[in-house]
Automatic annotation (TrEMBL):
<feature type="transmembrane region" description="Helical">
    <location>
        <begin position="30"/>
        <end position="49"/>
    </location>
</feature>
<protein>
    <submittedName>
        <fullName>Uncharacterized protein</fullName>
    </submittedName>
</protein>
<keyword id="KW-0812">Transmembrane</keyword>
<keyword id="KW-1133">Transmembrane helix</keyword>
<keyword id="KW-0472">Membrane</keyword>
Length: 130
């Protein structure tokens, strides 16, 4: 796979070097380049901050730390974690990680008539149907 990439890249080195030598093109698109770099750096900062927060919470030697460690292991999004915490708080306030062990917790929310029922069904599939 790497060989193919380098062969493709090698075929376009003249185009790339010509584009960078043409400073007019970069000067015309400075706003686009700046905006792209700014958005990329903001996204990277937020991504690293979220991972840092999850790692910090997971490293805590508490039941909540176990919950966040399991969330990180299952690669759950922030929205997934919020829904799971809501379900865990209702049934096992002192042991939120039980939501990963007892599928009945999520099934109780799936049976409710609400707009969140479908999301809880997707979460149950993600956690228990692998």
């Amino acid at each position: 796979m790497n060989v193919d990439f380098y062969l493709i890249l090698a075929g376009h080195t003249n185009d790339v070097s010509r584009a960078f030598r043409n400073r007019g093109m970069l000067q015309e698109n400075w706003l686009l380049v700046t905006a792209t770099l700014l958005i990329g750096s903001i996204w990277l900062t937020l991504y690293l901050w979220e991972n840092f927060q999850l790692r910090r919470k997971a490293n805590a030697d508490t039941p909540q730390g176990l919950f966040y460690d399991l969330c990180k292991t299952h690669r759950l999004s922030r929205t997934d974690i919020t829904y799971l915490l809501k379900a865990a708080q209702a049934h096992y306030r002192d042991q939120p990680a039980m939501v990963f062990v007892d599928p009945g917790i999520l099934n109780a929310y799936i049976k409710e008539v609400s707009s969140d029922a479908k999301y809880y069904e997707l979460l149950a599939d993600k956690l228990f149907k692998h």
